[in-house]
């Protein structure tokens, strides 16, 4: 009898961890296949540092073939799951269809940019979920400062020097914090800007930055951002996005060429197509992370609605910490399903959060101890290095170089805006046709 | 009276050096404007190391605003020169037209991929002049190994594991030498390839690799390449390129998805449009690097046919060494033209060549001393670090990391093939429309 085939859809935090843990547990007792559009696991929390030019893009990737021995990687985007036939269909990087039968299925498709019905957002806002989007933003921001330097039209210059971030969660806060440091440094190298300082706005309908985290972390982030001149406007969002500006909920129009959309995430749309029960787009699972009525189908990470044992009736939030622990548990429970060990329910304990604010600043609350400044910075960077499943030396070296050398301020111009649309089911891929 | 405006077209070796030298000489006595499609000087000799994943792409760029104080950068591609009106027309990165008047003009537009009338080459071959092309190749080669691993079709697998480089000059030789090391390392990480070793072919109609350099350097390169299993076929070229293979001049068909076009360079087409006298597409200049009949127009680098003082009746070859020295001389002669110093004719002496062959190998002949192995490697890397006008620490650190860590083997999938066509007047830019 051949070993059962476990097909894992998606190599984000949850899927990667499932594959990694299962490859250690199984030792040949299961055939593990991982389907993912890219050949790397992306360490998403460091994307803002890619956008600000601190880290090279490959630094935040971990090659799947190198770090998952015994796991077969199939490059492709899953577009259909046939639960009755136990088969997954996908499209490979050259556009050819493929399919895979499974004995156990793990749906860890992750999340994509959250869209809101705001006129013009889909056309003119730039998302921030994948590496192509972060690289587009790095090039775009750099180019805006250069074009501001080149123009003699002061209105145009001001618009190009204005950057608006919508959404003051983890991502938006870090993007604004790193972004303002980067554009300040660029502006100093462009003497024709004549001291005009690039302007960053950070908007959120919530009343404080980092609304989902501890209020003391919000205070730290707010203080650091305002200290750098970021225009932090809470209780404010956008009602319209135009090519040359945004209209705010308070009626004001802000001329800008840069609207960075960090409004949050929604589960990958593949989940909604399954015809199974979902909660806000997430696939409902039981405490063992199996889909009710389908004991061979597991879901985890952002794509799964996992009951939160600490808050009855609620579901675990869409964070990397949960995704990692979901992934490990799914691996254990799959091993149990074919006789290795016994299955367990999902339990968790918050370990705290870490927000890198660029420069020497950060906000962190490891094990409920609130930190700011260099202490938080140390904890944050240490946390990231420990959390990355590979490539740590290169990341640490880039941080070291950034501390001692001037930041590189060039745009490679690799990605046109239409290659990274906001309305994108696969932000990890570059869209090649308009 | 306002100082004369010097407009320099192109920031390759020649144009960059003109701007740099003139900014030191002029000290405000001239207004210096540099027009270039990118905001960086590209250190082209290290592109093969970008394609093989040794160096990050930004490492081989030097930001123009940072390293050329007092020089105004205009981002744009020059599309017309009006010699009578003394005006240059260009298109900016957003597609808008612009124009600049000049008192002195320096044409340093450089070169692009050389095309040959071989059926299918324009459609299926991949060029190697700009950073986008090098990054495309890195992604493409990586993806071919991954797709070879994924397929069970042995014919398809063999084609994907075959890489053909046409042109055994400096670039092609380095691309093949670095490429075979990279794909060997990738293949080791893909156990499903079952020991199938990627195959590299290096073709040239010449009778030896590096035909323009000293025969002892050819011997070194040939020995190293063959030692690594590269199929070196001299006196051979391609007669047809298809999507799935190439036909060689000996009639053999080689199935491959990868034809890398390193046939040489031709001057940027802008030069031919001027209506001035050219030699093989290069703008003819006198020994002072001025255009006959146009004392205010200078040309240098690959775009200029400069009389070779050591070989009467011939012109200096299209090398970086000449371009750098052209650029310096143009700066001196422009300064002389408005009264700083006296103009000088072009004289040069060969300093030798350095070819990096990857791993611990290189071939170099500094001051006519022939070196191979680690000694040549040291000279070659030292030469590059000294020749780069910036970013040396980052390049040295990447080399160090590559020596001690496994090479990163991921493809970011940033560039589709149609974004970097071989038939490209501006290989430094990504073509955004099909």
From TrEMBL, chains A, B:
InterPro entries: FAD/NAD-bd_sf (IPR036188), FAD/NAD-binding_dom (IPR023753), NDH-2 (IPR045024). Keywords: FAD, Flavoprotein, NAD, Oxidoreductase. One of its GO terms (molecular function) is NADH dehydrogenase activity. Residues 5-327 form the FAD/NAD(P)-binding domain. Gene3D superfamilies: 3.50.50.100. Belongs to the NADH dehydrogenase family. This is NADH dehydrogenase. It comes from Micromonospora pattaloongensis.
């Amino acid at each position: 009898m051949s070993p059962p085939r476990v097909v894992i859809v998606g190599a984000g935090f949850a899927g990667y961890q499932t594959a990694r843990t299962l490859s250690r547990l199984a030792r040949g007792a299961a055939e593990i296949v991982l389907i993912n559009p890219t050949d790397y696991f992306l360490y998403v929390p460091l994307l803002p540092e890619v956008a600000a030019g601190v880290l090279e893009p490959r630094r935040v990737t971990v090659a799947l073939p190198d770090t998952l021995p015994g796991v077969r990687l199939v490059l492709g985007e899953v577009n259909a799951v046939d639960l009755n036939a136990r088969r997954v269909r996908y499209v490979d990087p050259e556009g050819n269809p493929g399919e895979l039968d499974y004995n156990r299925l793990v749906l860890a498709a992750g999340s994509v940019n959250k869209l809101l019905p705001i006129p013009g957002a889909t056309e003119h806002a730039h998302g921030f979920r994948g590496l192509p989007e972060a690289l587009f933003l790095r090039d775009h921001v750099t180019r805006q400062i250069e074009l501001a330097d080149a123009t003699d039209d002061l209105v145009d210059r001001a618009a190009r020097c204005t950057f608006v971030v919508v959404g003051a969660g983890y991502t938006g806060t870090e993007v604004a914090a790193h972004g303002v440091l980067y554009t300040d440094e660029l502006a100093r190298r462009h003497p024709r800007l004549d001291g005009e300082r690039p302007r960053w706005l950070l908007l959120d309908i919530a009343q404080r930055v980092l609304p989902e985290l501890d209020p003391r972390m919000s205070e730290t982030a707010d203080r650091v951002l305002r200290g750098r001149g970021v225009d932090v406007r809470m209780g404010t969002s956008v009602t319209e996005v135009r090519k040359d500006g945004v209209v705010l909920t308070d009626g004001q129009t802000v001329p800008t060429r840069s609207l960075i959309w960090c409004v949050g995430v929604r589960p990958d749309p593949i989940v909604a197509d399954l015809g199974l029960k979902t909660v806000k787009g997430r696939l409902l699972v039981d405490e063992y992370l199996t889909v009710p009525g389908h004991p061979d189908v597991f879901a985890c990470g952002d794509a799964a609605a996992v009951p939160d044992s600490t808050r009855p009736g609620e579901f675990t939030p869409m964070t990397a910490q949960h995704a990692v622990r979901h992934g490990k548990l799914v691996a254990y429970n799959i091993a149990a399903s074919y006789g290795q060990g016994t299955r367990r329910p999902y339990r968790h304990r918050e370990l705290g959060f870490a927000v890198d604010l660029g420069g020497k600043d950060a906000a962190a609350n490891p094990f409920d101890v609130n930190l700011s400044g260099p202490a938080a910075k140390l904890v944050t960077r240490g946390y990231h290095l420990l959390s990355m499943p590979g490539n740590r030396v290169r990341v640490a070296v880039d941080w070291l170089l950034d501390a001692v050398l001037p930041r590189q301020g060039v745009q490679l111009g690799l990605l046109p805006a239409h290659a990274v649309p906001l309305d994108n089911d696969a932000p990890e891929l570059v869209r090649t046709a308009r």
